[in-house]
Amino acid sequence: MTECTFCELMKRKANVLFENEKICLMLSPEPATPGHLIILPKHHAPILEAIPDYVVKEMFVNANKASTALFETLGAQGTNLLIQNGEPAGQKHNHVMLHILPRFENDKLNIGWQPKKISEDEMSTAELKIKQETGAVGG
Questions:
Q1: What is the mean pLDDT of the chain?
Q2: pTM for the complete prediction?
Q3: Residue 138 has pLDDT above 80, yes or no
Q4: What strands, in cross-sheet order, belong to the sheet with 37-41?
């Protein structure tokens, strides 16, 4: 396996702000905005589905705290939490990470999308397919 850039950064403690046995919070080495943070599982995993639920929970609990810190320290007016899960979703590195982006009025960072109109048949088909696999969600 090729060495993971983010596993290496965690080993070197590069820009690490907080860590525990499960996760690492660091300043992004490729920031979209000043104060862009990332939370990574310490155990290498390429996509979110490869991480145990208790680690995902740890990531989001700490993302909430980090987001609060961005409001208080940088005066952020908002934050975006983003996971790019797989290459078609924009993932650039082979290690799952939760991005915490501080947002400011007129920061010109565009991560939105244009809603698309889909037919009732497409919506129903998607709903039926997904519903079968999401029965355990919340359980």
A1: 94
A2: 0.89
A3: no
A4: 16-19, 23-27, 37-41, 98-103, 78-82
